[in-house]
Amino acid sequence: MTASDVGLSILKRFLHSKSSISKRLTQGNASKLAKRVIACLDVRTNDKGDLVVTKGDQYDVREHTKENEVRNLGKPVELARQYYQDGADEAGNFFYIPGLPSWRFTYAEVGGGIRDFTDANGRHYTSLEVASEYFRSGADKISIGSDAVYAAEEYLRTGVKTGKSSLEQISRVYGNQAVVVSIDPRRVYLKTPEEVEFKAVKITNPGPNGEEYAWYQCTVSGGREGRPIGAFELAKAVEELGAGEILLNCIDCDGQGKGFDIDLIKLISDAVSIPVIASSGAGKPEHFSEVFEKTNASAALAAGIFHRNEVPIQAVKKHLSKEGIEVRTNVATSLTQTVQPSTI
């Protein structure tokens, strides 16, 4: 029997199978994709020059004290080690962590500074070169923020994919799965959805003046500058430009501990076919089950409640399992090099 005969035989059995094996395979409940629980480490240099894990309160990372120092919730390597041992599925937003050892998470994502820049010596680096350094150092994904907003605005204005944006270049070389777009929207309340040209939704909780609708204005520069584009429009555009995943934040919910913005997350996770990570607002395990039950989010992320040990990662996973939401019970044990200091 030739190889082609074997191939045709397999295809025939696949198309017309009535065997007990095929019947057994179709019986029972299919396994669902496990939801991911992600620990976010926002790392920056404090006023003393030390690298610390910090946490924003609606994106403000400074303590409201006389010293106005950067909020310090621990050392990056120590917290990363703890989250690895606790079973976090991924570690998100490692910003330039020297000395991080070789044990690692299922995925490590690096964000911040993924754009063209010129160093102190006058040498120019493209965003692709910057991303390449991170990937060579062991990062699995990189996240793009402001640059993705500008690229989406240009694409929506012209309808042309130039291939020159950082999003397009990096996804073309490393694949869509390696590029995450971080969206930082702010809620803008409306009396009627017709007030704006952007996608508006009816919100669960009315605004301060009884408004029943809102649109989600995207921002750049760490939430400091609003842009004329909505989260819905941005998400659709970046998917077309090559993003493989969306990290969906919400400035209004950040650091509040009152739960994720379900209206926003449902809007975006229903609009795109790529995975959406819910971020901003987690305060207890029930907030994780709520976002998974009410939206199509593939993962949920938290920072402060993990850093302060208010809610252990395993407590979140046990709660999700109890609610019938499938999660990964064992952390991956594959060992590769994690992000080391960039040479550029």
Q: How would you describe this structure to a colleague?
A:
Its EC number is 4.3.2.10. It comes from Papaver somniferum (Opium poppy). It holds the Pfam family His_biosynth. With 344 residues, the chain is an alpha/beta fold. It contains 11 helices and 16 strands. Mean pLDDT is 81; it is low at 19-31, 94-107 and 331-344. It is 32% helix and 20% strand. The strands form 4 sheets. The protein has an 8-stranded parallel beta barrel, surrounded by 8 helices. Strands 10, 11, 12 and 13 form a 4-stranded antiparallel β-sheet that branches.
- CATH architecture annotation name of the domain at 33-182 and 234-323: Alpha-Beta Barrel
SSE order:
HHEEEHEEEEHEHHEEEEEHEHEHEHH
Structural class: alpha/beta
Supply the CATH class of the domain at 33-182 and 234-323.
Answer: Alpha Beta
Q: How many E strands?
A: 16
Strand arrangement within the widest β-sheet reads 1-4-5-8-9-14-15-16
Task: State the share of residues found in helices, binned by percent.
Answer: 25-40%
Strand percentage, roughly?
A: 15-25%
CATH topology of the domain at 33-182 and 234-323: TIM Barrel
Distance between the termini: 58 Å
Low-confidence stretches: 19-31, 94-107, 331-344
Given the structure, what is the number of helices? 11
Report the mean per-residue pLDDT as an integer.
Answer: 81
| CATH homologous superfamily label of the domain at 33-182 and 234-323 | Aldolase class I
Report the C-alpha radius of gyration, rounded: 22 Å
Silhouette:
globular
How would you sum up the major sheet? Answer: 8 strands, parallel, barrel
GO biological process, one term: L-histidine biosynthetic process
Protein name: imidazole glycerol-phosphate synthase
GO molecular function: imidazoleglycerol-phosphate synthase activity; lyase activity
Family: Belongs to the HisA/HisF family.
